[in-house]
Amino acid sequence: MMRESTTTTLFRLEAWKWTAMAILIYVFIVGWIVPLKPGIIKVSPDRAVAGEQVVIDVTGYNSAFASDSTQLRAWLSLAGDTVLSALHVQAWDDRHLSASFYIPSVFPVRQEAYPLTLILDHGIEGSSVLPNAIFITPASVQDTSELPLWYKDKIEHIHQKAGMQYPFRNILAETIRNTYFHVPMWFCMIILFGASAWYSLKYYKKGDIDADRRSVAFIKVGLIFGLGLVTGMLWAKNTWNAYWSWDVKQNMSAICLLIYAALMVMRSSVEDEMQKARLTAGYNMFAFVLLIPLLFIIPRMTDSLHPGNGGNPALGGEDLDNTMRMVFYPAVIGFILLGLWISQLVYRTDKLKGNL
Amino acid sequence: MKLNKSCHIYGLFQQPMSIKSIFAFVLLLVFQSARAEGEAAPDFIRSIGKIYVVAGVCLIILITLFIYMIQLDRKISRIEKRQKNE
Hints:
Chain A is α+β, with helices and mostly antiparallel strands. Chain A has helices spanning 6-11, 15-33, 149-152, 183-206, 209-224, 228-239, 248-269, 273-301, 322-355; strands at residues 39-44, 47-49, 53-61, 73-77, 83-85, 88-93, 96-102, 114-122, 126-137. Chain A folds into two domains: 7-18 and 173-355, no CATH class; 39-152, Immunoglobulins (Immunoglobulin-like).
């Protein structure tokens, strides 16, 4: 019976598995090919003294300074309404330009140093921003008559390029795409552990060994999706400058994975099948309850490098704009479906093994 | 006198390009190209906007899943073998 139609059985698959594959193919293609908005990588010098004219060299990313450079404008901004317009902007090539500014010797506010934000606008390519691009130290002689210079200019007619582009974030640059690959790992892991806890509860109520098998399959695959720890370390090395910076969320997710790893070790040390299942069910429900404060509450109570924790905005603003949502949410759904699929295979394998 | 000073500051590039400012920009160009040569190349993984970090993350995910699938495949093969023997 198996022999007669291998080709048709190959493609006979539940619809949700097809959906998982289609979504993940979409995520991998769109997540990789959509370009970033133009950005500013480097400004030199990054320090200057007030009361002087300063010429800064700007290195762009994904930028096209040279194409129609007459439309290029630049500003340095201290705050929303205190803006200095560039005296002159000269594009050398698509990625390099020089801009000259006169920094007034007197500032509207008094500080030790003044971080200025660089804003570029190109008529076709759109605008780009580098916060804290240049630090100004106060001048020795302050001329109060220069104060109006701060209010003379305004940032107006900012252009935005139409079409699909991901936001350019300073430091992150292209790694903003990791939002589609690293973050869904954790979503998937939490869903799998949740499903596992659900089946543990079911086992507790009915004593059905099949529920135990399902719950263990979910834990096994959930632990595999704990590889988010490794992907996160690679990402952290190149943005936070250390594989492990003892960030609260890093620590808590490592603890959480250890709890589940301990569950698997404990399980393998018990001989009796029924006792094994009972212990697993109890431990597993406890572990999932623990997962919620570990991953959702404690990281929000202290400072964390992760977005969405310690006062940082979560899943919003420039870190996840509407263009990114078009890939991020499918990515989450796709990876969850993939996780459920693999768990189902593990469950079916364990069931075969158990029935022998 | 004050007025004169700010006029001088703002007038530098707004007047028809003086020899001085053109000279300044040529100098700047020379310095820039000299600096570009002296600049150390960023390490491989951080080049091109750190795109290789994304490649690395995708590879880690794929390789881990593949290794797990291979293990699962071998497990199923063992069961099939046992089933055959019985």
